[in-house]
Amino acid sequence: MKTLKHSILALITLLLIVACSKESTNTQVKGFVADATNLNRLAGATVFLKKQKTSCFSCQGSTIDMTTADNNGNYSFDFEHEKGFTYSLTASHNNYWDILPGYFYIDKGEKNTKILTMTPKAYLRVFIKNTSPYDGNDRLGLVVVGGAYSFYGMTVDSFIVKEALGNQDNPVAWSITKNNVQNSYNANVYCPAFDTTNYTINY
Fold it and tell me: Cys staple from 149: which of 55, 69, 142, 180, with CB 3.0 to 4.6 Å?
């Protein structure tokens, strides 16, 4: 009898150890994809489930599953959340800026609801023209949507086109050097989504 009791006790102990050392947790995440500027739902967006080691802060992670949002922008994932790993969501859609890793992390368990918002693209075309030339040392330095450009000389007449953030202001900054005198300027240019906005700098 004592042997049977000891065997049952050992079995219970073993089961508790196995349960406590479980290496994964069933996890669900669901939600929808929407335009960040008006919350219109985005059908057809591709949503990616990514996995990376928790100890690796610079890792971009690898895609372990993907799905396409339905006609109402809805998506869902059901997966095993392994110990020692971090999980996140990214998304892509035509004419929208991709969601970058690190914005939408997933907690262990079955109560994850994530609304993935995406910023629409626009286009900003900047015309640059030296309308009052001084000499060949004339210079215009331009920073627009993360890009930096320099133009030299008396006969500058050019333009650049950049992808921009739709339905919001985009900063433009420039400096003009003539006769060894430098002046700096800046502006915020509103760019409607999916359209091209023109902006002119005459100097």
Answer: 142
Q: In what order do the strands lie in the sheet with 46-53?
A: 62-68, 46-53, 85-92, 99-105
Pairing type for strands 196-202 and 168-178 reads: unpaired
Q: Is the pLDDT of residue 40 over 60?
A: yes
* pTM of the model as a whole: 0.79
Instruction: Please enumerate in sequence order all residues whose Cβ is within 8 A of that of 5, keeping only pairs 6 or more positions apart, or say none.
Output: none
Length of the chain: 203
* pLDDT tens digit sequence for 95-128: 999 998 878 999 999 889 999 999 999 999 999 9
